[in-house]
Amino acid sequence: MRILVQKFGGTSVATDEARIVAVEKVVRAVRDGWSVVVVVSAIGRAGAPYATDTLISMLKGIDPVTPPAPRELDLMMACGEILSTVIFAQTVRGRDLDSIALTGGQAGILTDYEFGNARILSIDPTYVVKMLEVGKVVVVAGFQGLTALGAITTLGRGGSDTTASALAASLKPYAKEIAAEIYTDVSGVKTADPRIVPGAQTLAQATYGVVAEMAHQGAKVVHPRAAEIADQYEIPLWIKNTFDDEPGTLITRNAPKNNRPLGATGVTHTGKLAYLRFPTSGIDDSDRTQIEREIYLLLARESIPIHLTSTGASGFGFTVTREHLSRLRELIDGLIVPIDLGVQKRPPFGRIFLLGLGRGRGYQAQQTLLGRAAHLVDVKGIEASVTEGVTLVSLIAEDLAGVPGALVWMLETLQKSGVTVHQTADSRYSVSALIPEAQVHAATRALHDEFGLEK
Amino acid sequence: MFSSAAMQFERTRGVTQVRVTPGLTHVEVKLLPDQRLSLLRTLAEQKIPVLMVNLCESGLSFAVRQESTDSCTRALSKTAYDVTLAPDKTLVSVIAGAMRDLSGIIAQIYDALHEEGIAIRQTSDAYDAVHVLVDGPEAERARLALEQRFPEGGGM
After folding, report:
1. Is the ipTM of this complex over 0.90?
2. Cβ contact A281:A290 at 8 Å
């Protein structure tokens, strides 16, 4: 058998017209001799009657003060994909192809018990294979699985991409040829956001590592979880547009080297961020480490993710997404970190660090109180600066590990375009700069141009 | 023919490995913000790879591999900047899956190292790793503390 897994996202199944176009891709694959497994997302996006967000709102709307149990919330959310599966299977049937609709559990997907963000533990593809053997198009609900005790779980962000990739991996032993196609509303992996760079190109081929990096750095291509599974099991993964016949992007373990400077493959940018910087000049590394620890533990308890951490003698900093900034302000304003209190038998009895984002009300109130104890303990204020309206722009390349000058080249390009850089980061596949959000268009265009990405 | 084929799929979420890279030198340079690029250009022209570049008000800091330390020292000695080199540092990398979906890995790293009294000289993070630079003699204790904090496959 030659097995092809085709995944269609929300926009590809949003309307009757879109679904008919999607089904045509299935028909064509069957005609080309593939045994086809289809993975579908829920119908439409937020606001559509059967979209996942709509179903969540319906459940939460019953009683705004009583949150739904995670198990029941997953059961509700999974309904969107199940509906979509049955409708898609029926549309396939209308094209004279036999089909069967399966939930994730019926397709053999076993997950752990983390409702809302479950991990696939294993897949038993026996039933799917049997259905393919008898010539059916198998339509599987994406984004869901089943626990060992029979509860429906959802897979969290990128769930349907993950379903497609994992199903393809499970079917590989049964196929003489296997591939997966992720259909979306763009014609493959682009070298930049086409809304910013109209001349952005579609990559013909890319590696799993590069695509995972692009996704992590803000490009909306394929979910990194799906790319990681495809990489692990060497599943050729295509990113294609439901609404055109362009060849799309083939993602594999090895891709031909491109001739662009640094082997550049794209420019991405993340969402809206805020950058916090805590000055700590004159504070020793040990105390600074302890202050950072207190802040990070506090943020972890509040489930506030941080990125782009940096530290050094002069201070430490990190970014948070804009949505978390107001809560973070409340937490940090007036935060006290006592160190070595009571260790000494004579004054000063220890050190107290008072933190604030600037001089907030909490900071000022604590400062007044601590002023009365100044003869007993050393009190030092740390007023963090907050830079709002920033974003991370990244140059993605095939392999930057140990390449001298990559960061300099990027910074020089940004400087020539008048872009301000607050902080930098680098990894094997990217160099990144934290820049004002207002300059993201200029930065993206400059980098795209400088690194030959229009060719 | 179609016996049940149970396969493992998703990579374990959370921390999967603690990796140690010894032999780094930590470099701090005091300069004005508009001089940073010139300094980095000087190092790039000498083909010196720099890691963990951290920009700050008073200048910048970074790490270089031990084999580049001499050429880095030579290159920087030709500049008029106030340079501090601290050799014998070790990079301890905490490798994790789905890092952006998890909060708290950095907090746990700081907590584990603080309990051991280990100061962190510099940090950086990527989507699949958090890197911390510690003094070389403390690296083994740092590795053990982190492996204990993140038991194999357990992650967070």
Report:
1. no
2. no
